[in-house]
């Protein structure tokens, strides 16, 4: 499911920074009157008018200088504020797009890569907008204005500037293409290294137990070397582009200076509109020549920002691409659903397959009465988890209909229906934080009293007390397997509005006694609610009223 055009993030659109950039451009143009005043003062001094010729121009230069600084500062502040606001909205779009993907989508961006793109790489967008965009604006305005003023005094000097200038963009464009490719490659490398590192850190216990730490370190080293090489490639290109520009601008300024010098000496007495240039006019042209190249030099200095910024924008855009959408993931305000006692559930003509895999369900049917308890049985891989995810609106069905309490599960109702679902996945994620925070999960309307009651219900009190105020380790380290399952039970127990419980293998890997206790707690919790449990545990299945065998159901579909 792709988001409708109106909700698609406008990643490439840039904020209207025109005013800020224009004011910075005006600041650059103020050098024209400043240079004119300076040349006028020197001309006055040379023609013997003494210090009287310097007073007014000096005051003018000072005032213009102050105005120029004020324009620069105001423009830069404005552009910066807009760039930060734009980055914030880009990040929000990327986060929304990420959240609109199904959590069971295997093709989602790896967590480390997503974190690297959103937190670190996205920062490259700010220099791009703050420095590159205004520099580009100045390049389009300032050199033309200066060339026009110089041309009004000497067409030869203007011609020299105009011949030197186009060579710069041509070379920059050639280098720019390489820079963009190098920057993209560097960002991809950085993202995959972050993803690799995060993944291996999570699995460190397994790597250590199986003696695979050295091999992983070698791979990480190879990755770091490759990132270093890519970073150096980007830097090389950045240096090359500056060198090309410095060369051409130095040549341009030198040629103008040589022409003006020889013209004033009378050796080259052509290139003006009739009269010889005065000392003041010659000096004015000389002062303007470096300023003609300055915006181009600024652009070259920030050329790398463009490559990095565009690569970052691209990376943010890529985060939104997913193979499986979360039903209702991009619907801003869906419908509300009124619960009226435990819901019935009906699945009609369900079709589903994971992308690129053979179909798991083709015309699957199931009816569950309100308040009924059902065990889903089936061989490993028969699709029990997929069916629960489809019912919870965590996976999009290809075809068919799922109705919960008479409300059809759709993009508009998925979020509201999920509100009445208590979900306990096969591998509940334990966040680094206290047991209490892990139970409440920051959900609205869940206070400390409810959390304590849920903790007592799930017999987690000893765990919570054993670590008063202390954090559980990342990924559940510090909890036994049974405790992690009880924590997951507490999470649904605390959610009083959940009257459809979808539970995936709650007793897997537990000893008989712990499994029996977990089953007791689950059945107590499910009293008066609709319960669907996927399980391989015959003891648990026997305690639940009805058993649905997915293998048999799939055989029926096939028949
Ligand atoms: N995120 C996914 N992307 C693609 N294929 C998947 C994904 N998750 C599971 N599968 C595949 O879909 C099939 C059904 O998996 P599912 O987890 O639903 O089975 P299950 O009956 O719950 O298995 P188990 O009893 O082992 O938990 C399997 O072949 C599995 O490899």
TrEMBL record:
This is Thiol reductant ABC exporter subunit CydD. Keywords: ATP-binding, Cell membrane, Membrane, Nucleotide-binding, Transmembrane, Transmembrane helix. InterPro entries: AAA+_ATPase, ABC1_TM_dom, ABC1_TM_sf, ABC_transporter-like_ATP-bd, ABC_transporter-like_CS, ABC_transptr_CydD, P-loop_NTPase, Type_1_exporter. CDD domains: ABC_6TM_AarD_CydD, ABCC_MRP_Like. Pfam families: ABC_membrane, ABC_tran. It is a multi-pass membrane protein. SUPFAM superfamilies: ABC transporter transmembrane region, P-loop containing nucleoside triphosphate hydrolases. It comes from the Bacteria. Residues 26-308 form the ABC transmembrane type-1 domain. It is found in: Cell membrane. PANTHER family: ATP-BINDING CASSETTE SUB-FAMILY B, GLUTATHIONE_L-CYSTEINE TRANSPORT SYSTEM ATP-BINDING_PERMEASE PROTEIN CYDD.
